[in-house]
């Protein structure tokens, strides 16, 4: 019987972003009060699991989401650049509340190819780096579990790839809520299932969309 290993991808909690900026990889964006409660709720949910490694994107919001779980599990947080948010040319612009994102014709060229996508890091490159860190975490936690804190787009396209689905998609239709867990179960090196849960779901409901999903909500 092969060893079973589970790698959980945890999306960070809500970010304090009152002006509706697409923050992407910009520094200085931290969890809101609600986001901190989300992180604490997740920590309680994973406290009894056999997690032996906690890795995080270097972004502040990801590290702050990882901290309660790492503390509860008695583990150090390892930072890994491969878990970082996807690059986006609209970083720093307001994307909600009638912002200027879609009013400047000079930006239209960035919407020409949604399959790549033309506004940011190619989906295939995001999947490649995420798969690499998942493989390393699986090896490190073989026979146990690992918790990796990342961001919505990287987690979602990794799930799409694992399930054999196309990578291009409508960001508003991602099943990857704030502080949600997307869990990959391996038998040996073979992926046998992908699960999804929202341990902080009761706190998340009713929160505004964030990141690229907010960008597309403007046109919807």
UniProtKB/TrEMBL annotation:
Keywords: Hydrolase. It is an enzyme of class 3 (hydrolase). SUPFAM superfamilies: Phosphoglycerate mutase-like (SSF53254). It comes from the Bacteria. The keyword Hydrolase applies. GO terms for molecular function: hydrolase activity. Its EC number is 3.1.3.-. This is Histidine phosphatase family protein. It comes from Sphaerimonospora cavernae.
């Amino acid at each position: 019987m092969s060893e079973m290993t589970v790698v959980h991808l945890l999306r960070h909690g809500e970010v304090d972003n009152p002006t509706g900026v697409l923050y992407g990889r910009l520094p200085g964006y931290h969890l809101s009060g609600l986001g901190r409660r989300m992180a604490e709720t997740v920590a309680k949910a994973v406290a009894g699991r056999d997690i032996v490694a906690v890795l995080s994107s270097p972004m502040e919001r990801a590290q702050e989401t990882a901290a309660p779980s790492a503390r509860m599990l008695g583990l150090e947080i390892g930072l890994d650049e491969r878990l970082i948010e996807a690059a986006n040319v609209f970083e720093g612009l307001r994307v909600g509340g009638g912002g200027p994102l879609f009013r400047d014709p000079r930006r239209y060229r960035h919407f020409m190819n949604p399959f790549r996508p033309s506004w940011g890091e190619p989906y295939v490159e995001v999947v490649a780096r995420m798969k690499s860190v998942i493989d390393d975490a699986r090896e490190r936690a073989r026979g146990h579990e690992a918790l990796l804190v990342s961001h919505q787009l990287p987690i979602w396209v990794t799930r799409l790839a694992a399930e054999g689905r196309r990578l291009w998609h409508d960001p508003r239709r991602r099943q990857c809520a704030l502080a949600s867990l997307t869990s990959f179960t391996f038998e040996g090196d073979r992926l046998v299932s992908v699960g999804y849960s929202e341990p902080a779901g009761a706190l998340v409901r009713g929160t505004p969309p964030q990141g690229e999903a907010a960008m597309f909500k403007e046109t919807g």
